[in-house]
Amino acid sequence: MSIVPGGAVYMSIGYEQFREVARDLYSRALKKIPADTHRALAAAEQVETDPRARDNLRFLRGVAKTTEQQSRHACSDAGFPTYTVKIGTNVTLSGDIRRGFVDGFAEMVDTIDPPILQFITHPLTLERSYSGKDMPILSFDVIDGADYVEVICSPKALGSGRWAALEIFSYPTLADIEAYVMDCVMKAGSQHCPPVVIGVGIGGSFDNAAKIAKSAVLRPIGTAHPEPMVAEMEERLLAAVNATGFGPMGTGGDTTALAVHVDYSAGHGFVPVAVCFNCWINRRTVARISDAGEITHVE
Questions:
Q1: Is residue 13 helix, strand or coil?
Q2: Distance between CA 22 and CA 83 in Å, rounded?
Q3: Own/partner pairs for 171-176, CB < 8 Å, 24+ apart?
Q4: How far is CA 120 from CA 125, 134, 166, in A?
Q5: What is the pTM of this model?
Q6: Parallel, antiparallel, or unpaired for β 120-121 and 165-170?
Q7: Could you tell me the residue ranges of all domains in the chain?
Q8: Gap between the Cα atoms of 147 and 46, Å rounded
Q9: Is pLDDT of 160 > 90?
Q10: CA-to-CA distance for 282 and 158, rounded, in angstroms?
């Protein structure tokens, strides 16, 4: 709460809220699989034609259920902290926002049960720790007219993170773009722990294409791009990915991907294309902080 000249009182969002959200979202992401992913795994099991793949999908669904019931980690690789912060233009911010995320993650490390291993790695020395330069990684955007801040936590682990890729083309055709996506899929094989969700970002600048791909991979499964041309591209790519036959956990079958989500940005004649993956756990937790400081967990 802040007091301005004249005695007016207004609420603000600051250090304490961001610390709490950073702590809780990360812990939830390790122990809770999104509802849309539960539904997608169940739907995939119903249409999968390979008996071994059906068994694997059934096993993964059991892991997801046990994870939540027993408050355990769905995967031993906890990844590293990444948050997307979308700030409503009608909110008031105060205090040390970045420090809130740093301290929230540190508190999570100290209190989570079971504990997590040291996965934050210095890229030059390969020394591992629970902290490091620029950790947590924060990305910011704005939401015009909103009276809340939305925070998305999506820890990225080695399996899916290793295979993200980006290439820049000059005036590519749709066929060129789709061929590149499939090239990334074939290089990854089953090393990203399928069935995966695939995000594709096209256009804009080098960094913006990667941001678009990351946002696309976090889109709820079952949603299609609003533009028919892009939605049709998503359908073609999903069919092509599942025709590779890698299947759940690479043991064969029809279900290598649960979804392919594509988005784009206008740009120039040079066209970056970014591809990223989320493993079968599809880690994604979301909370909103109202201008009054109230925290609501959206998923």
A1: strand
A2: 8
A3: 171/269, 171/271, 172/271, 172/273, 174/233
A4: 12, 11, 23
A5: 0.93
A6: unpaired
A7: 9-30+74-157+284-297, 158-278
A8: 42
A9: no
A10: 13
